[in-house]
Structure formats: C-alpha cells, structure tokens
Write a structure and sequence with these properties.
single chain, about 170 residues, 6 helices, about 65% helix
Length: about 170
C-alpha cells in the first residue's frame, strides 16, 4: 500500500519570500558590521577567532535568501500574499523556540548535549520518529559538529554551568 502524498510546498506564497528577504537583509547588515561588533584582537588566527562562526552562519542566511529575493522581484504565476498550510507558521515557530533553547543549552549543558537534544527534539516534533531519525542522525551530526568546531577549528566553548556545579 502506498503512503498518501503530502501536498507540495506552495512556492507562490509571497509572504514567505518577504520574510526570507527581511531575514537575509538583516543578516547581510549584521555580516557587514560584524568586524565592528566582534573583538578580533586575540592571538588566534582568523579561522579560530570569534568572528568565523558569525561569518559562516550569516553568509548562509544571505545565500538562503537569494532565491526568495528573485521570486519577490519576479513572482511566479498565481503568487499570492498568504501563508501556506493553516495560515500560521506554527511548526516554524516551535523550531525557533527549540533553537533558542539550544543556545541557552550551550551554556547550561554544553555543545554536545544541547545539540543532541535540539536535533532529537526537532525530529520528534516534526514527526520523524524512526530510530534513524531520532538517534542515528542526531548522534552523527553532533559528532561531526564537535569534531569540526572543537577539534579541527579549536573553537573555545565555555564550561557548561552544570559541569561547574558538579565540580564545585
């Protein structure tokens, strides 16, 4: 028996494009001014310094907004000013809440535990509940992130509060 197909994502929603362009423009502004906002006077080389992660993240946001900018300038036939689905971006909002919790979790429980919980919670919330989604992918991505940022780039992360609390 074949699984029912989901309705395809409506690329004709101009409101999505406006929001994407807004976030992309904001990211571009922060990216341009980031050397003024981040202290880079430390002894570390550029790729280990505190500016590398904001540059990577903000650059990805700007790149992700480019297709929406093109669609906003030349909308496809049938484009309308509406949100897809039920008219509210509920799932997107809750993933944003998970992401903010992840940021607080970095300081509370550390990179590994916070990233693992964020990915597992996100997959569970989005109904990806097979073991490969709930366990394998989060463990692999957390391991890759830890290797890249902590070991290869040697980015410093503060000691988690929970660890400080247990150590005394």
């Amino acid at each position: 028996m074949k699984a029912p197909m989901k309705a395809p994502f409506n690329t004709g929603s101009r409101l999505h494009d406006v929001l994407s362009v807004f976030f992309g423009t904001f990211a571009a502004g922060v990216l341009i001014t980031s050397p003024l906002n981040v202290d880079t006077s430390g002894p570390d080389p550029f790729y280990k310094g505190p500016l590398i992660f904001p540059i990577m993240a903000l650059s990805l946001m700007v790149l992700a907004a480019l297709p929406a900018t093109g669609r906003l300038l030349r909308p496809p036939a049938g484009a309308a000013w509406h949100l897809d689905g039920e008219g509210r971006p509920v799932k997107t909002f809750f993933i944003l809440v998970f992401l903010v919790a992840h940021l607080f979790g970095l300081r509370l429980v550390g990179l590994e535990a916070s990233s693992l919980l964020f990915l597992m919670g996100g997959f569970y919330y989005l109904n990806y509940r097979r073991p490969v989604h709930l366990l394998l992918i989060p463990i692999l991505l957390t391991g890759i992130m830890t290797l890249v940022f902590k070991h290869f780039l040697q980015v410093w992360f503060p000691t988690p509060w929970l660890m400080e609390w247990f150590e005394g």
